[in-house]
Design goal:
homodimer, 220 residues, alpha+beta, NADH Oxidase, 41% helix, globular
């Protein structure tokens, strides 16, 4: 594969929240989950699991939880962009509308991948720093990203969500999860309702990178 | 691009610790950093930055810190596999030898990407759970994985390391980082000394995935 072909996947990896209820064929799903399995993890421990939820009652229960959290989140999110230009506000409103659509159709999704992790299988090297820890995520979110890139390549829409972590005990009970396993992401999956994947808007590398220290923007 | 071509990249994404000192051309580096910029993040905030370290004195300083941490880590890691079979022990020893090589050549690497993040730009939805937090990582490690897959596609070796987070205040001082930005990964980069990328060993998807709940392994 040329690098360019990989980049074409990455630069069109949109968050897709409007998803059809059409089933995802087992062979496609198997390839997507296998792509996740290839991701690097600390000490190659693969300290994550996926509970793939396709059962109607469980999808309904997750959707109800997600909807309640989304409603609060959307209200807060709306406040954040009150000061933006009308064009930017309209763009954010489209994102919220897509989130509303996701909530309304959560129960009908073909599948939701609930990513779980076990901290005992991780060397959390930033655990003692005086700020929120993130390093455990280094052994799970590469797998999440592999899964989402695989979805992109297969034409399956998806979006990385973490709101359900706020009600983790309820999710754990619903999915019969053991005590020492926790949740880190929920990825709704399905074929896109609209145009699906396409160009994304991101800051350019030059705005995100420094040369040797924070004082010098990187110019390549 | 076919999905198969993406999978070929992913299933050969080895951790590569034996890296040459040959420079990485600016156009290659620019494409790799741009691939990172395309990754999804919560609310599209892109709450991460990269300090690309190529200055000799700073690489030497980082290498000295890394080497001291690696020595302790390797001793601990060795204890963990004392009970394994001779074949498995030999495999782990090869990993340690590669890590030793990385330490010995750290100062001569063409580049080290230090990933930084700002928790104020993140909605850390698992902050109130009674376990180590990981969700902040959901907005940075997809970018790390994009960068590493781009390295794979360009034939540039790399490995995800987090040991330097243990001495974060020293790294922040070395790189003139602002108070509210922290470090989450250091990715040494360079062309491979040996064969480079190739097949990896991972648990199969069937061992990592469940169907609707923890009690039922997924069979697709």
């Amino acid at each position: 594969m040329s690098a360019e072909a990989l980049y074409e996947m990455m630069r069109t990896q949109r968050a897709i929240r409007r998803l059809k209820s059409d089933p995802i064929p087992d062979d496609v799903m198997h390839r997507i989950l296998t792509a996740a399995s290839w991701a690097p993890s600390g000490g190659n421990q693969q300290p994550w699991r996926i509970v793939l939820v396709r059962d109607a009652a469980k999808k309904k229960a997750l959707g109800d939880m997600y909807g309640a959290l989304w409603e609060k989140f959307a209200a807060m999110y709306r406040k954040r962009f009150e000061g933006l230009s009308p064009e930017e506000q309209a763009k954010e409103e489209r994102t919220i509308a897509a989130g509303d659509y996701l909530c309304a159709h959560f129960h009908a999704l073909p599948a939701v991948a609930i990513f779980c992790f076990n901290p005992k299988m991780m060397a959390v090297t930033d655990a003692k720093q005086d700020r929120v820890s993130v390093v455990g995520g280094g052994s799970v979110y590469p797998a999440v990203q592999n899964l989402m890139l695989a979805c992109r390549a297969e034409g399956v829409g998806c979006v990385l969500t973490t709101l359900l972590c706020q009600v983790e005990p309820d999710v754990k009970a619903l999915l019969d999860m053991p005590e020492d396993w926790y949740t880190c992401a929920a990825v709704p999956m399905g074929y896109p309702v609209g145009g699906g994947y396409g160009p994304i808007k991101r800051r350019a590398a030059g705005e995100l990178c420094f040369e040797d220290g924070w004082k010098t923007p990187l110019s390549l």
